[in-house]
Specification:
Number of domains: 1
CATH topology: Glutaredoxin
Order of helices and strands: HEEEHEHEHEEH
Radius of gyration: 20 Å
Number of strands: 7
Strand content: 15-25%
CATH architecture: 3-Layer(aba) Sandwich
Strand order of the largest sheet: 5-4-3-6-7
Number of helices: 5
CATH superfamily: Glutaredoxin
Length: about 170
């Protein structure tokens, strides 16, 4: 009988503690959501906010220097920038690497990345609901997330380019 009383009193207290002391998981940024504001500095020292990209289609690539699929995506992103840049496409690389900025700068040079690259802190990764890398957000001219791609493959590359062409035509 005492065990039953103990359990009946303990369970509600445990549930209340869980509700009070745990934080909800960050929501994953979805299609149709406004892109959260950003305030970054590129590896070249240029400050960047989303306002820099108003009126442009923005491809924002979250990557890490050690990530194989991230490395495979870079030539495709360079190509998209070269092919559609004059039509209004901008590409921004956002490194999630921790530690030394020099490593990211060296990576940018070694990989011949032709677009700006900045380093994201944990807050930005949380705001964008980052769960894996590479993750690419395609953001329209009004600052709304139109597509979210996770991972990289030829299918992803084709779908990304199709989305970009459609948005540039709007």
């Amino acid at each position: 009988m005492r065990l039953r009383t103990f359990i009946l009193k303990t369970i509600p207290l445990a549930l209340a503690a869980l509700l009070l002391f745990t934080q909800p998981a960050a929501a994953i940024l979805q299609k149709g959501d406004a892109a959260p504001p950003i305030k970054l500095t590129t590896t070249a020292g240029q400050p960047i906010t989303l306002n820099n990209y108003k009126g442009y289609v923005l491809v924002m690539d979250f990557f890490a220097t050690w990530c194989i699929p991230c490395k495979e995506a870079i030539p495709h992103l360079n190509s998209l920038r070269a092919k559609y840049g004059k039509q209004g496409l901008q590409v921004l690389g956002v490194s999630v690497d921790e530690g030394n900025d020099r490593d990211v700068k060296d990576f940018v040079a070694e990989r011949r990345i032709s677009y700006p690259v900045a380093i994201a802190g944990e807050e930005m990764q949380t705001e964008y609901g980052l769960r894996s890398i590479p993750t690419v957000f395609v953001i329209n001219k009004k600052g709304v997330v139109v597509e979210r791609f996770q991972g990289f493959s030829e299918q992803t590359a084709k779908a990304m380019e199709d989305t970009i062409k459609r948005l540039l035509a709007e």
